[in-house]
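Sample intake sheet
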Amino acid sequence: MAGAGEPNLTVANSATETSPPYDRFQDLKTFDESKAGVKGLVDAGIEKIPRIFVRPTDELAGDYPISDTHLSIPVIDIGFDSNRRCTIVDGVRRASETLGFFQVVNHGMRRSVLEEMLRAARGFNEQNKEVKMGFYSRELERRVKFGSNFDLYQSRSANWRDTLFCAMGPDPLDPQELPEVCRDITMEYSKQIKQLGTTLFELLSEALGLKSDHLIGLDCAKGHAILTNYYPACPEPELTMGTSKHSDPDFLTILLQDDIGGLQVLHQNQWVNVPPVPGALVVNIGDLLQLISNDRFRSVEHRALANHVGPRVSVACFFTPHLYPSTRMYGPVKDLLSEDNPPVYRETTVKDFIAYYDSKGLDGNSALTYFKL
């Protein structure tokens, strides 16, 4: 049932032979115009998920199995020690070439900052809904916006997730644009995560056999966006997803997850869990880094489950000059090419890559295919 002022959406399994044809677009529009997100549905006391969130039967039937092996995502200690530099670079190389994912510890970010960032993400979503609604937007160029499902009208099923998007660079963001409840910690988190990103790009450059400043010289660390994701407890998690299968349209992603878990990585046609490690941050290669590394590094598909337990909160930092009007062309790094290793991709701008990615939405297909030669 929906409370006063809440979206009254068609729920799964409610149609009968005498019902009028299902108007999916109208249900999407009703949900969108409520500006209350998924949390609004939960607050309304629903017991079944609305039909717009239910995954198609063919998608459910064709899903990959969850791995029953003990494959684990590598945890790499990147604490500065010149004697261990080669070991760290080698660990980063192996993880980037095979799994596309690893976790880092001793990364220089204070545990108190991580914990406060998660609290602030929860606080934003659990404050008075009228305050949140003031940030609700689907404007592409808006630097700070709250929303649910950027691809709401393109996807086959909506995800059980609300997101606050903040473009923190390359142009400095005026702190006053950020919601008050998470303003100070988001600015501090942004500053520290940018430093960590620089360190990781140096390690990744060396892992490719390049000088440590090579990827930074390509502006890979020039801009970043912080996305706080809020996954409310779901009454029917087996029917929907927190985040559908996708790879990231950036150079690199650094993810802070809480202790609930739910992140899974696709490896050898099986879903592998990425369990939370206290104090660790999850790092994954983005599509643009796979492109410029000419497939040396892998941007791997991943997803987040919906869960009976919640809310689950995560904070993702995407390293990409997303809204920056750069005309720089990105293609495979020439130093990595040879007669035996010709370019796999054509050149593109970040803007064109993002535009293509956004236009297709999280449809389960890699955007990289479109840019192959």
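Comment: The radius of gyration is 21 Å. Confidence is low (pLDDT under 50) at residues 1-5.
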